[in-house]
Amino acid sequence: MDKLIEQHDELLENAPEDFDLAEHEKTCPICNKESINDPDERGDVETFSREQLDAAVLAAIAPLEAELKSIKDEASKSDDEARQAAADEAAAKIVALQSELDAAELKVENAEKLLADSLAWIQAVVDLDAEAARLDELKESRSALVKEQTSFSEEKIAERIDDWAMLSEDEFAARLADWAELSTAKKDSSESDGAETAGIRVVRPGKQAKTSFMDSLKDVTEKASAAGYDFSSL
User: Fold this and answer.
1) Which of 9, 59, 182, 229 would be 224's cystine partner, CB 3.0–4.6 Å?
2) Nearest to 10 by CA among 18, 2, 32
3) From CA 201, how far away is CA 183, in angstroms rounded?
4) CB 71 within 8 A of CB 79
5) What are phi and psi of 17, to 5 degrees?
6) Every domain of the chain and the residues it spans
7) What 8-state DSSP symbol labels residue 17?
């Protein structure tokens, strides 16, 4: 306060010539202390209630809150759109990946089928080769038995060996026994006796019902050939 009084006095000492000091002293609270005793000299001061202050504050910040809400809503909308866009993109990627997976599975399935078919074909070739080798071995062994135990010529054996190789072991053994018996009879008797024997051995009632006409005819021809007769020219 003293500092203010000093400044006040200094200003008055240096006041311009036209300064109205008398008027100043009437209204200056430092120069005239009585001027501040009247409360009205301080002017009117408007007072507010708590509710009025709160309302004023709310009214003042209402535009700011509205703007803030708008910003938040826009951000939320942007977030929703971004999430939806991300979800759509993810769904599209899933569809694309599923398509690729289906295509890959189809390729694998086709490859597996191709491999299975190839293996089956290779196995079939191997089986055919094995069967061919077995038949060749069987033909060779049966040709040797026929040549050893019968009087068939090599030409006759070569001509009939394919059919003989198709016979079962029991069928071939039965025929070989018949041919061997006829061949032995041929050596031990005359041609007429051999022919009679051949005629007796040709017909077997028990076998006629089980064989076809052509099989029976082949059987008769083979037995006759084993006995020394050639019916091919008849």
Assistant:
1) 229
2) 2
3) 12
4) no
5) -65, -35
6) 133-226
7) T
**Helix residue ranges, H only, the chain:** 2-13, 21-27, 50-149, 154-165, 169-188, 191-202, 205-208, 213-226
What radius of gyration, in Å, describes the C-alpha atoms of the chain?
67
Buried b (16+ CB within 10 A) or exposed e, 136-156: eebbeebbebbeebbbbeeeb
CB 226 within 8 A of CB 157: no
User: d(Cα 112, Cα 115) in Å, to the nearest integer?
Assistant: 5
Closest CA to 42 of 29, 32, 24, 25: 29
Give the list of residues 6+ apart from residue 147 with CB closer than 8 angstroms, or none. 154, 157
Q: What's the predicted TM-score (pTM) here? A: 0.38
Tokens of 155: 């030409």
What is the Cα–Cα distance from 55 to 33, expressed in whole angstroms?
A: 40
Q: Tokens for 203?
A: 């017909």
* pLDDT 10s digits, 17-74: 777 777 777 777 777 766 555 555 445 556 778 888 778 878 888 888 888 888 888 8
Burial of 186 (0-12, 13-18, 19+ CB in 10 A): buried
